[in-house]
Amino acid sequence: MSSAEKKLSIEERLALDVFNVDEEPHIIVEKDKCEKCELKPCLYVCPANLYTLDENGKIQFNYEGCLECGSCRVACPKEAVKWNHPRGGFGVQFRFG
Amino acid sequence: MSEKFDVAIVGAGPSGLTAAYFLAKKGLEVVVLEKGGELGSKNMYGGRIYTHVLNRYFPEYTREAPVERWVRKEQLYFMTKNSAVKLEFFADDAFLKESFTAYLTKFVQWLGKKAEEAGVLIATGVRVDSLILEDNTVKGVIAGDDKLYADYTIIAEGANTLLLDNLNLKPMTKPEEVALGVKEVFRLDEERINERFGVNSEEGVAGLLVGFPSLGSIGGGFLYTMKNEITLGVVIRLDEPVKKKIKMYEVVEDFRMHPLIKKLLRDSYMIEYSAHFVLERGKLPDKYLYGDGYLVVGAAAGFELNTGLVVRGVDLAIESGKQAADTIIEAHEKGKQDKQTLASYISRLKNSFIYRELEAFKKAPRFLSNERLYNQYPEVVNEFLKEILTVNGTPRRLYSTFRKAMRNKVSLLDLIRDGLGAVRSL
To answer: CA torsion sign, B90 to B91 to B97 to B99?
Structure first.
């Protein structure tokens, strides 16, 4: 139960949303550019925590669960995020937006 | 699709649909392209719509629109980690109809139905990838392999201005020009919402929360009561999270665990988690709002207003849609699509409340980027009240207690400077 008594993980919260996931990723991250990026704002701004670091400190990204806010596109200082909306009809579907 | 339309509109939000509605009413052939599979499924905001424009353009809204609750109580909270000071305005009956809470998803569905009844073709599930540019004139839109020609194109793509940015129709969006809003929706039965917030079923609460919700960074929290839900969220300027090492997906949950918020949400459960841009920069310069064959409306044009106490978007979007429709109706009668003709959009905006209000508050974004507002002042207010209300045998006089609360946080000079700043900007 998604009770309001305790904190919910991002996975628990995203599981409440309705997604029609496209097989075709709508965001492509050019990860070689990330290696030269010290700030890595994507790790902080993404409301779905889709940007993470692996054990080697490299950026990992998964477009599934994207809330399509555009934050990573605007915050990225290296222009490493090739951002598009999901194809028509795909992606997140807010019911209480 | 190879048919040619009079007007193609990118985005079925409040601005695009309002423009479509008024254009179709004048007999123009209008198509609205919406990327969402269903109307409203990509729209998101905090939770409140101001009614003045609805009274003017859609007076039937009182019977038809998906109103959740009329705002009876306006609340402003100054929060620290464990305490809060709340200022509440309990509205009189006349004020009650100034604004209502609603889901933008449902409001857009309602507006879309009205536009369709007026003759607009709304194509959902269509992502516009680019614009048709011929002879330096926008001549319609490109969606996948399809080209759709139109005499006029209205860009109503919202705050995440992907088309405008990609086509260099304005400078690239910078992190400090936008904020990220993250919203959580909690279901709680109507009766308990009424009791907990001291309202009846038709009336509700709109709250802005300063300090702890954004962890002292530039931004704040919001709270709205819907009929059977409470919406709660945090908005933070997009350059702040990396500077302050704040993770956007965590901050909203930290806010929710505040003892006061926890009590308000007791026994409820979350039903949706969403995110969307909010504008921080003010409107785009005029030269980016129109061009040969096109106009820009709504949040894409920068038409949102945050005065620190009042946060607005939908009413400005609707007004800009109406002004864009009037501009195109006039140009269409003349048979012209050129920039000079469409420049009348700017004079129309100048005569509307949009420019009057945005002009009056043009210094607000700078004033509101003062970190003391989100950090020190909420602390000082809480500290002062805690101290002055403490009874333990030590006398606590007003002024000395106030100076003590300010110590190491705000100097008297800062206070005077910020006070003057508020007077000048807000």
So the answer is: negative
